[in-house]
Structures are given as C-alpha cells and as structure tokens.
TrEMBL record:
Protein name: Ribosome maturation factor RimP
Organism listed in the record: [Clostridium] leptum DSM 753
Domain Ribosome maturation factor RimP N-terminal as annotated: residue spans: 17-89
This protein's UniProt keywords: Cytoplasm, Ribosome biogenesis
Gene Ontology, cellular component aspect: cytosol
Domain of life: Bacteria
Function: Required for maturation of 30S ribosomal subunits.
Family that this chain belongs to: Belongs to the RimP family.
One matching Pfam family: RimP_N
Compartments where located: Cytoplasm
Name of the gene this protein is made from: rimP
C-alpha cells in the first residue's frame, strides 16, 4: 500500500499536484495510493472534510484533477483513477491524522506480535510524537507503539464502556 513516503515518485508527484486543487474545494487531501489489485492498477485519491464528503465532492475533484494528471503523466501504465472518502474506519497514515484523532477509538494490527503474543489491539489513541503513539487498551493500561511496526491503525466504531471522543 503506497503512501507519501512509500511508493516512490508517483505518489509524491500526484500528492503535490492534487493538494492545492483539493484545497480549492474546501477539502483536505487525506491520502494518495497507487496500487495493483488483480490485473488492474489504481490511483486512489482520498479526500476529507470535517462535515464529511459527498459524492458530488468526489466527482468535482475527479473532474478537476483528471486533465492535470494527464498532463503530468506520473504513471507508466494504464490505471483507474478513483477519488473517494477515507471512510468511517479510515486508516491513520500521516502524523496529522494521529494528532487530529487523539482520544478516538482505534484498531491496531502489528507486523509482528509483542512479547506477550498479542498482535491486534482495540483501544483509544493517545499522543503521537516522532512516529510513536500511545494506545490506551483500558482505563489504566497504555502501551507505546511505533507506527513503522504496524500493518495499520484505523479508526474504530466500537460501542464500548471505555473510551472514545465525543463527536
């Protein structure tokens, strides 16, 4: 899965092209991913806004970036362009994502299990600094995890007695 730091120049070039266009629509560029699924390559541009993203937002951004992307031609092979919302269980990728959603419930999957054998966690996101975040796994226990050691960190829509920010 590509993000700004992984996936080389393609993602970086698309990010730089799309970010000002997305901002012109009053939206935030959440992520850019260039990946292969089956035989098809996809260039996915994820957009967000505090109030949520509409289908019209996705259509407008898609139309606005289509021609500039064709001119930039950042991809050697054919691909399918998708502009979409990151969704309710969005993956937290950039430091800004972790800071924005501090206090929210998250799901975490690690690349390798901890010494305890645990690899998957649900908890409340604590502070994030220098690539390390705190995860409150209950009201008294917190663990510190490095983002680089995770498969993913996603928002979690669990309904539990513990944790979570009020919307």
């Amino acid at each position: 899965m590509a993000n700004r730091k992984k996936g080389g120049g393609t993602v970086e070039a698309v990010w730089d092209l799309c970010e000002p266009i997305v901002k012109d629509f009053g939206l935030e560029l959440w992520d850019v991913r260039y990946l292969k699924e089956g035989a098809q390559w996809y260039l996915r541009v994820y957009i967000d806004r505090q109030e949520g993203v509409t289908i019209e937002d996705c259509e407008n951004v898609s139309r606005a970036i289509d021609e500039p992307l064709d001119r930039l031609d950042p991809v050697d092979q054919s691909y399918c362009l998708e502009v979409c919302s990151p969704g309710l269980e969005r993956e937290l990728v950039r430091p800004e994502h972790f800071q924005r959603f501090e206090g929210w419930p998250v799901m975490v999957k690690l690349i390798r299990p901890l010494d305890s054998g645990e690899r998957e966690f649900n908890g409340v996101l604590g502070t994030y600094e220098n690539g390390v975040f705190d995860l409150w796994v209950n009201e008294t226990d917190v663990i510190s995890l490095a983002k680089k050691d995770t498969v993913f960190v996603k928002l979690d829509d669990f309904d539990d007695d513990f944790g979570g920010a009020e919307e």
